[in-house]
Amino acid sequence: xxxxxxxxxxxxxxxxxxxxxxxxxxxxxxxxxxxxxxxxxxxxxxxxxxxxxxxxxxxxxxxxxxxxxxxxxxxxxxxxxxxxxxxxxxxxxxxxxxxxxxxxxxxxxxxxxxxxxxxxxxxxxxxxxxxxxxxxxxxxxxxxxxxxxxxxxxxxxxxxxxxxxxxxxxxxxxxxxxxxxxxxxxxxxxxxxxxxxxxxxxxxxxxxxxxxxxxxxxxxxxxxxxxxxxxxxxxxxxxxxxxxxxxxxxxxxxxxxxxxxxxxxxxxxxxxxxxxxxxxxxxxxxxxxxxxxxxxxxxxxxxxxxxxxxxxxxxxxxxxxxxxxxxxxxxxxxxxxxxxxxxxxxxxxxxxxxxxxxxx
Length: 360
Known about the structure:
Helices cover 2% and strands 43% of the residues. By secondary structure, the chain is an all-beta fold. It has one domain (2-29, 56-344): 6 Propeller (Neuraminidase). The strands form six sheets. Strands 1, 2, 17, 18, 19 and 20 form a six-stranded antiparallel β-sheet that branches. The protein is globular. It comes from Mycolicibacterium parafortuitum (Mycobacterium parafortuitum).
């Protein structure tokens, strides 16, 4: 591994005032005028009570994608990449299906991520990043309604279709797109591939032009925001190595850490200058810590999870301060040995490991 001491690599902005739209306008909603195909009906009894898994949120899950922790810190919404299902899971109750989104799961496509509207309690809106037979796109789902497109035309490839979603403000949706297996697209300002995109006031009609916050990304890993200073962290995978990058509130972009051995960076979670990152291929979660004075990395990433529950992608902080992950064992080569679950990173409690003294 090799560390980058947050040397400035460029600048990007979260506000749209000084950003330019794409040279070629992206395809914004509304999409095709044909009536979308309704989602398939939900199964009458989708889950047998045959997946015992003490201490985790069980549900006979398929390989997961997006994860949303719910207010009680003991339940969550989790997406299944291959099936397009969004399921509500809990440590106490049998799972239920919230919705099934039609997706194309070929290659590494499918249901990539889900996020709730910042005003979900009022508008009941959820956003998803998905793969269709023709493209990757961002959609919006209202309770009881069919999915509606927000942003379409994100390039699709045989690989590099993953993406992530996060709200950087109550009105700004950040969209991480993969490079569709073609690094040249990530450097092309006319392409939406390999970018961190900004959608202001996401809507299905009269959407403002999408702007670019960061270019040159490889296969998408995940995004997270440190509430302490509003820095956004983003992971991606490139031919030269896996990366963790940072965009400060003042839009300074820097490389935090690189992994030349390419362990498969995925989802992240951040708090008070500590960034947890899932490494899928090595079945690890690591903690990267930054100095509060200089912003420099304080040392090698510390392994806080090794092998438990297998290959994990998503990572989220729950309201009570614990961290939960969701696994991708069925698509990472361990389908015969390991179930896919939503699990607590620190099952004995203790919350987020903010400093080197707070060992796990």
